Amino acid sequence: MRKVVYSSITKLVAVLLLIACIVTGVLFATNGIFEYFHDEEDIYAFEDDFSESWYVRSLLDTPHNLMYNVYHDVFYEHDEYGRRIIKENISTDELRADFIKRMEEIFGEPSNFDKINYYVQWNDLVFTNCGAEKEEELLYGEYHSYFKKDKTGAVERFSSAPTDLTREYLLEEIELFDSTSTIVISCSIRDDAVQHYKTIWEEQESIVIDTFIKIIVCAGAALLLLIYLLCVCGKNKDGEYKNMWLDNIWIEVHLAAIAGAAIGAIVLCIFVIEDYVYGNFPHNLIYGVMGSVSALGSLIIITSLLSIIRNIKTRRLIETSIILRILRWIWRLVIRIAKWVWRATKTFWRAIFGMVSKKTGAILITMLFVYTAVVGLFGVLTIISPVWLLMGILLFGGACFVVAYRAKDLDE
User: Fold this and answer.
1) Predicted TM-score (pTM) of this structure
2) Is 165 helix (H, G, I), strand (E, B) or coil?
3) pLDDT, tens digit, for every residue of 93-126?
4) SS (H, E, C) 350-401
5) What SS3 class is residue 279?
6) Among residues 37, 251, 296, 401, which one has the fewest Cβ atoms lying within 10 Å of its Cβ?
């Protein structure tokens, strides 16, 4: 097998290439974000096809959402505690007039429906922006939807989109306010809008996929270089483990530097990107700032990480860590205390066994334990009956007799 190259120049080149891979990946991601948000709508969300896009659903949901909002605005109010409560039934003339007025305002606003055609019927009132006389007239085109709730509460719906509409269920909740009205909503997306947003979706899909592939390539190259550096760091050209002056810094300082550089670089990059998206950051500085921030952050992280790895390889991790040295001191103290306790325990038991080496001593100590337990039990039972107090007195007398009888052995 070929020997791993340990020369300083090779390691330096590997570090520079690693930083270059990280910076390149960050710039690819930055450029992808800017290209993605260049359009007026961010439509693509990793769907397989434009027909599955959340944007298609949102456009077809527009009349449903607006009608549901009108119901909420008209028939909800708040009590003195701020809790939302339902007003009286829609049959009230005042509420009915307010509801019709709000419907006319909402569905008469052209800006709400610049991408769709709709036909909305509420009992005998009809709202449309395309001159349709019946709901069937809008059930054409690539994307359309239909919803109907009759006076009995029966619901009928279908949609040309392959995914379920996310907001149609809200109209079924209108039963809370209005259980007798007939509601019909027919909606279709205009052909020019479909073509326009399908093009945007395809462009954004291409941007996301291309950016993702580029980032994966950069990340893979960076990972290989990092593995190489982790293998060769700490060794000289002869394969001997050696430390640098940088390795004398406390490991806690290196860990703080890694965390600070990573968090600081991420926060600063997000701040710069947000400012750029909102037009508050100069275009000619954005890539330079992003590259500099990622380069500086990755340099600090790599330097501190390699220093920690070198200390691990040279077995100096504990000597260069405040926390590990404190933990080692505590561990040694615990071991010393444990050994002292063990020695004291052995000495104690040796003394005990020496004291009870005589037959009489063993008998008396055993009786002492038994006597103490039985007297305690009799004391508890005395609460139940005074007879146990008499039993305790008799037990005491018996103990005195045994001690007196064996006194001669103790004297000898």
Assistant:
1) 0.63
2) coil
3) 777 888 888 888 888 888 878 889 999 998 888 9
4) HHHHHHCCCHHHHHHHHHHHHHHHHHHHHHHHCCCCCHHHHHHHHHHHHHHH
5) coil
6) 401
* Euclidean distance between CA atoms 84 and 87, whole angstroms: 10
Q: Give the CB-side neighbour count of residue 333, counting CA atoms within 13 A.
A: 6
Q: Dump pLDDT digits (tens) for 368-404.
A: 778 788 878 877 777 777 777 788 788 788 777 777 7
Report the alpha-carbon distance of residue 375 to residue 193 in Å, rounded. 97
β-strand 125-128 against 84-86: which pairing, if any? Answer: unpaired
Question: CA–CA separation, 28 vs 4, rounded Å?
Answer: 32
The pLDDT value given to residue 1: 39
371-387: b (≥16 Cβ within 10 Å) or e: beeeeeebeeeeeeeee
Question: Going by C-beta distance under 8 Å and a sequence separation of 6 or more, which residues neighbour residue 213?
Answer: none
CB-based contacts of 215-224 (< 8 A; 24+ apart in sequence):
215/25, 215/28, 215/29, 218/21, 218/22, 218/24, 218/25, 218/28, 219/21, 219/25, 221/17, 221/21, 222/18, 222/21, 222/22, 222/25
Residue 24 is encoded by which pair of tokens? 């390149």
SS3 at position 262: helix
Ramachandran angles phi, psi of 295, nearest 5°: -65, -45
Q: How many residues does the chain have?
A: 412
What is the DSSP secondary structure assignment for residue 147, as one 8-state letter? E
Structure tokens at 60: 């077809």
Which residues make beta-bridge pairs with 122? 125, 183
